[in-house]
Amino acid sequence: MDRDKAFKKILVAFDNSESSKQAMQKACDIAEQFNSQITAVFVSGESDKSFEDAKSYLEQFSTAKGIPVEIIERSGKVYDQVIKLEKEEGFQLILIGAHGKKGWSPFWIGSNAFKVVSTSNCPVITIQDYATDTGIKDIVLPLMDSSTTRQKVTYAALLAKACGATVHILGVSKSKSKDAESHVKAYMRQTERYLMERDIKYTSELNLGTKVPEACVEHSKKVNAGLLMIMTETESAGYFMDSYSQQLVNTCPVPVMSVHSRDTMLSGAAGY
After folding, report:
1. What angle do CA 4, 5, 9 make, to 5 degrees?
2. Of 226, 221, 205, nearest to 138 (Cα)?
3. Quick check: 24 pLDDT over 90?
4. Which one of 5, 47, 180, 204 is CB 3.0 to 4.6 Å from 15, fit for a cystine?
């Protein structure tokens, strides 16, 4: 994946809640490394905050950070407007605050975020309102016994190289079977080699026969991660996200980057 072409256009769903402010901060962390253009969209109709207040905050934030932020307003459903903008404007990364309890509906993570993560073609970073800002110096990369698990490795390497981050590989599976162990260890070795060839720092840990979401969260806390990367799978018939992804997006205190296997930037990435 070409760094010069990645993350050039970033979209932040912004409602002036604490979680959306954290999302904006994370967007700036990435924009500084990739010379990205940031657009913030405020969707009226689902927020009890005013567009003018949000615009005022963003203008001050943009000036203080020295990073231009385009601010736009849309009406309707948050997920509809975010996905529409992604498709129309070609955004390559979306950031969303997960629990803006005083902004969008408290059930937002089960509706707007759920549908954005499920239907977006580009990566989506979801951030809880209680997340701690630790930048992107440590990235947790879970590798499971599935055929698509390695596709996110290219994004992890891209971010780690740009941010000078360490990638923490976590080989994880709920199974302790010989097949699961063989697959996970093979994926870990391939990923270690891939990172080593690119002079990217990494650590490796194996955790089999465990509850996968809980293991990912605990490892993220252990290394003080600024980002946890996961693959998401959806059914073509509707908004379904696999249970591991749902649990992590819902509960992880660390920002979660969800990458979909249909992402066109990942052509051929499963085998690096």
Report:
1. 115
2. 226
3. yes
4. 47
